[in-house]
């Protein structure tokens, strides 16, 4: 039987308590060469406005593919910028297991990976979190990061002030000007649709950690050269970062490690280093999350 799981089904069973360690395991496998996965294929439907991405992966526990629509133009209409579907298969026989709505999976696995990296790289005394952006990923990162850090203060900025003010009112964050919000922060998340740098390295305190999750195209950026060249750079995939990330490509910043190497303990930045995690999102993260959901919703399955 092939199952079909909606976003509501996913929301019922998926938690950061399970997802954060699952993302660590998946990325360790990826960096150890145990995952078959090409860099995503991105089809341009309308330049800078509409894209369709194809993201397949094969791992020991599962295989499958995500189809994701990335529509930046939807933001102006208050619609989701990402919509996705995931097909999940049993790797031994190729038997189809399930089709899953991928929007919430994409949202949560992105934040869970950032949380896992932050747990390794943020200062033990990290207490101030700044969210640059106030959309879906800002909300998700606030939830996920609270599982790995105890923040006394949360700051938020958005290029649309009313959005940031609404976010602040609902979350207890402080709405601030951008530079003031970043200065002195221990952990910063950039989750914007900006195509030019919004975060300047001159604003970062020594030892700060940045999770950069926007700017997913080769010509788009969220961080300036100083932020990248003055930090220890971690990526989810070297190959993907060098093909997809404008922040990495245009700054020519050296890549210190993949997240999977960090989790495996084979690469360790200096304890006092200022660090940047450039997240692009990998198919293996989606497939591992889909398998987690499938197992939770189909406990009696043969898969």
Explain this structure to me?
By secondary structure, the protein is an alpha/beta fold. It has 11 helices and 14 strands. The strands form 2 sheets. The chain has an 8-stranded parallel β-sheet. Strands 1-6-5-4-3-2 form a 6-stranded mixed β-sheet. Strand 5 (82-89) and strand 6 (96-101) form a beta hairpin. Helix 2 packs across helix 3. The radius of gyration is 18 Å and the shape is globular. The relative contact order is 0.18.
Secondary structure topology:
Elements: E1 3-5, H1 7-13, H2 16-31, E2 41-46, E3 50-58, E4 63-70, E5 82-89, E6 96-101, H3 103-121, E7 128-132, H4 136-145, E8 153-157, H5 161-171, E9 174-175, H6 178-182, E10 187-190, E11 209-212, H7 225-229, E12 232-235, H8 238-244, H9 246-251, E13 255-258, H10 259-264, E14 275-278, H11 283-297
Parallel strand pairs: 1-6, 7-8, 7-10, 8-9, 10-11, 11-14, 12-13, 12-14
Antiparallel strand pairs: 2-3, 3-4, 4-5, 5-6
Helix pairs in contact: 2-3, 2-11, 3-4, 3-11
